[in-house]
Specification:
- This protein has one domain (8-119): SspB-like (SH3 type barrels), CATH 2.30.30.
- The chain is 19% helix and 28% strand.
- The protein has helices at residues 8-30, 53-58; strands at 38-43, 62-67, 72-76, 80-87, 90-97, 101-106, 111-114.
- The relative contact order is 0.20.
């Protein structure tokens, strides 16, 4: 694309990422309101992601974290968000660049955003429909299907 063309998809992507950023910044200041909580999926192979090697080894492509009951020290800036969670009972600090985030979901509000990989980034794999992961504890990978309202 030439410099003279308007890259609308990129502008929309940036605007949507800013929604997630503003929401997390508000939660960092005020805490989670009501029943709100978040499922955030991000690429674990992003070069600027800061997570322990053991977690990256366990989740080599992507992972989903839950910000609900047990998270601490949420901090948000223009480049990334940082949060402390427990993995296998051990406290762990994550720094997740906004460019690594692939989805942001608030089931309480029935709201979700999905972001596309930018040029030069790895693509998120298609979900395995046969795998249903059970919710265990904050910091564990979960299936969003477990939390969606079922049509009767």
């Amino acid at each position: 694309m030439s410099r003279r063309e308007i890259d609308y998809p990129k502008l929309v992507e940036e605007a949507l990422r800013s929604v997630a950023q503003k929401v997390l910044a508000r939660v960092a200041e005020e805490g989670l309101p009501g029943e709100h909580h978040f499922f955030i999926t991000f690429l674990t192979d992003h070069p600027e992601l800061e997570i322990p090697a053991s977690i990256r080894d366990t989740y080599p492509v992507d992972m989903t974290i839950v910000l609900q009951n047990e998270f601490w020290d949420l901090a948000v800036d223009d480049e990334a968000f940082e949060v402390s969670l427990r993995f296998d009972g051990e406290p762990c600090r994550l720094r997740v660049p906004w460019q690594a985030v692939r989805s942001f979901v608030d089931p309480a509000a029935e709201f979700g955003l999905r972001f596309e990989a930018q040029e030069g980034e790895s693509k998120e794999p298609e979900p395995d429909q046969d795998r249903v992961e059970q919710r265990q504890s904050p910091g564990e990978v979960v299936s969003l299907e477990d939390f969606r309202k079922k049509d009767e």
